[in-house]
Amino acid sequence: MNRRASITDLAKALGLSASTISRALADHHDVSEATKARVRQLAKELHYQPNPLAAGLRRGRSNTLGVIVPHITGYFFPEVIHGIASEASEAGFNVMICQSNEDAQQERQIIELLMGAQVAGILLSLSDTTTDFEHFEAVRQQGVPLVFFDRVVQGFKGTNVTSVTLNDYLGAYQVVEHLIAQGCRRIAHFTGPLHVNIHKNRHQGYLDALAAHGLTPDPRLTAFCELSQQGGAAAMRGLMRLSATRRPDGVFSSNDLAAVGGMQVAKKLGFRVPEDVAIAGFSNEVFTQLTEPALTTVDQRCEQMGRTAVQQLQKMLPSPGHTPATPRGIVLKPKLVVRDSSQR
Amino acid sequence: MNRRASITDLAKALGLSASTISRALADHHDVSEATKARVRQLAKELHYQPNPLAAGLRRGRSNTLGVIVPHITGYFFPEVIHGIASEASEAGFNVMICQSNEDAQQERQIIELLMGAQVAGILLSLSDTTTDFEHFEAVRQQGVPLVFFDRVVQGFKGTNVTSVTLNDYLGAYQVVEHLIAQGCRRIAHFTGPLHVNIHKNRHQGYLDALAAHGLTPDPRLTAFCELSQQGGAAAMRGLMRLSATRRPDGVFSSNDLAAVGGMQVAKKLGFRVPEDVAIAGFSNEVFTQLTEPALTTVDQRCEQMGRTAVQQLQKMLPSPGHTPATPRGIVLKPKLVVRDSSQR
DNA sequence: GTGAAAGCGCTAACAA
DNA sequence: TTGTTAGCGCTTTCAC
């Protein structure tokens, strides 16, 4: 069980210096093609594998990307991570996944951990209990590229900071426009607390789409509820008990789960979906294809978001023949997914 | 922007040698308590952070765990990864997540990558196109702990190799027993190809449970189908068209998706679930709570599997005051989750 | 209980 | 085009 081959070994074997080997392997332009060929040849023979730990130590920077998400469960984050991991691997990065468990304290610790491990960059979706942003200072100041995705810190700028988000406003606008096109005139909206960005934006998209088509938003049709199956069910129960003229003929829920809860209640109360009430959700979760009828929703381009985040990160990284730049925040276009729950 | 504090810095500041600092920080027994206190004190003041790259280089081993999964999508793998990441983080490991994309070739490359990065251990769920196991030889021979989870290589043994799996047989047995207890007498089974382990085991559990309760398995009630929504739908259509005496009054599907497909068809054909036909799936996917009626299924203990895998790995790792051992393969007990689709 | 010395494998500035 | 030198930060003998 002999030691794995090192650059020094190659150097000795070929009667060259370690630096030349190093340069040859890195395909440096000022090494003769002949030498490169010899080096590569031997490297292959000896199954030479670079030691990233040593390279990282020397360079003061590893080739690992740190990823911080609130959690690795549910639909959204795994999909985004899938995108991140795929793109990163294609670009030659490793990925370290960390969960903040929606806890600002843990988020802080993970940042320290990643900075300690000298990651090449950090991809981060904010914990929802994070209220101060002190811990990002170190990242910014040390020039480690930082990309916020989905949950961003508004107004946290820097030459090495950017973001990738979804245009929630547009997504909401499109769903509501679609519902109007299907003949809905009294469209309700299930929403979470409006101080949360995504809900604020989706709500605004809802309002603006109505207005743009000459419909006056009725505040009684905006249901603030917990966006769970139960929450959606309760909200729907309240709405469908209204008199026929005040009852909604369409519902746009700020997430899929509440939409399903609502749909189940509507059916139970004897209303037909979509004929009596058309329903749409938001996120394109897996189960939206399985409901009866299948749920119209908005696709969040999760994988795309992950890939884009890595691409943005790379732009901020110095590399041969490319000076780091600060890309502007990217806002992804959502995609309306029309299914039976809204088509009539 | 001054350099981060190193052990050398601490040494200078305290008039001690680097070795003493290193030992103090590692809580070595032959450093005086007084010195330790002084060192820890200063370390805190200077925000000293160990450099894992340097330590790894020196030790020839990093503190990172490599994880290889076929993909990071769907329900199962993200949940397991969640468990792995949580447990690993509590034990002070970082986790590097890699996807083989169900491709043996990529799996091989990732193994090389991880070995190159000198990971402390590897957690692996086999790609379904992997047929030769040559690439695990290097891992076994270098003594890097290897834990297979869920999808294992039968008969690949070694002092540094173990596995964590689910008792599929038992899960199937329990569901079928439950269906029998609910009064089902003609129970059908949706299965995938029997050369795949999980299906073989679930099928056997199904057969044995029937036999144990005096029911003779009818081969015509075993439906080989694609385990998708469409596959389940097609299978159910075939079965429910049989004459009343040959028609099943219960269905156990080898996965949840096909169970849902089947349930939708049964309802469409005018059968009541669970009264006319009780239905159960396998995996406890999220959407099983959302169907109407909610689907009875078997929980696979995903997170537990991840946590257990990390624990098993740790047992094979040398550490102060503990000699590495080879744990036996762990087989987790599944958990029957009874919901409305089977309760009558 | 502490220190001195050596070196893990690599890279980059500088020299030739 | 190639070599020399030095050192990244840490751990671990071995010596005192």
Q: In total, how many beta strands of chain A?
A: 12
| Cα Rg of chain A | 26 Å
CATH topology of the largest domain in chain A: Rossmann fold
Secondary-structure element series of chain A:
HHHHEHEHEHEEHEHEHEHEEHEE
| CATH top level assignment of the largest domain in chain A | Alpha Beta
Low-confidence region ranges of chain A: none
**Biggest chain contact:** A-B, 49 and 49 residues
Oligomerization state? homodimer
Strand order of the largest sheet of chain A: 2-1-3-4-5-11
Annotation field: number of helices of chain A = 12
How many domain units of chain A? 3
Structural class per helix/strand content of chain A?
alpha/beta
The biggest sheet of chain A, with number of strands, parallel, antiparallel or mixed sense and barrel status, is: 6 strands, parallel
Mean pLDDT value of chain A: 94
Distance between the termini of chain A: 70 Å
What share of residues are in beta strands of chain A? Answer: 5-15%
| C-alpha geometry of chain A | elongated
CATH homologous superfamily annotation of the largest domain in chain A: Response regulator
Helix content of chain A: 40-55%
Going by CATH, the architecture of the largest domain in chain A would be: 3-Layer(aba) Sandwich
